């Protein structure tokens, strides 16, 4: 769930702000906060292949695909990285 303050989205992690300010990818830390969990939890989910958005490993860096994050924030449905490998049934 998105970070909330007094029932409204924190402006820094709202889909509108992300769409306007992020490039094609964002940090795991920022994406985790937008989804409502800690940096540590985000990296745990990345390591286990269960981060709810598409993640790219570029050299030693890990980046979250902005378009995927926006889809998850707007729909509430995760897009696990291994969804297309047959690990998660698609209906």
What does this structure look like?
There is one protein chain. The chain has 91 residues and is α+β, with helices and mostly antiparallel strands. It is built from four helices and five strands. The chain has helices spanning 15-21, 28-35, 39-47, 66-75, and strands spanning 4-5, 8-9, 25-27, 55-58, 61-65. The strands form two sheets. The protein has a three-stranded antiparallel β-sheet. Helix 2 (28-35) packs across helix 3. It is globular. It holds the Pfam family HTH_17. Residues 27-75 form the Helix-turn-helix domain. This is Helix-turn-helix domain-containing protein. It comes from Streptomyces cellulosae.
In short:
The chain has 91 residues and is of the alpha+beta class. The chain has helices spanning 15-21, 28-35, 39-47, 66-75; strands at 4-5, 8-9, 25-27, 55-58, 61-65. It contains four helices and five strands.
Which SSEs are present, and which pair or pack?
Elements: E1 4-5, E2 8-9, H1 15-21, E3 25-27, H2 28-35, H3 39-47, E4 55-58, E5 61-65, H4 66-75
Antiparallel strand pairs: 1-2, 3-5, 4-5
Organism: Streptomyces cellulosae
Protein name: Helix-turn-helix domain-containing protein
Domain Helix-turn-helix: 27-75
């Amino acid at each position: 769930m998105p970070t909330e303050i007094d029932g409204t989205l924190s402006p820094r992690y709202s889909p509108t702000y992300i769409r306007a300010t992020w490039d094609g990818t964002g940090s795991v830390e920022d994406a985790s906060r937008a989804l409502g969990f800690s940096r540590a939890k985000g990296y745990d989910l990345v390591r286990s292949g269960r981060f709810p958005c598409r993640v790219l490993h570029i050299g030693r860096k890990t980046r979250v695909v902005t378009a995927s994050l926006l889809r998850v924030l707007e729909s509430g449905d995760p897009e696990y990285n291994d969804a297309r490998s047959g690990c998660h049934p698609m209906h």
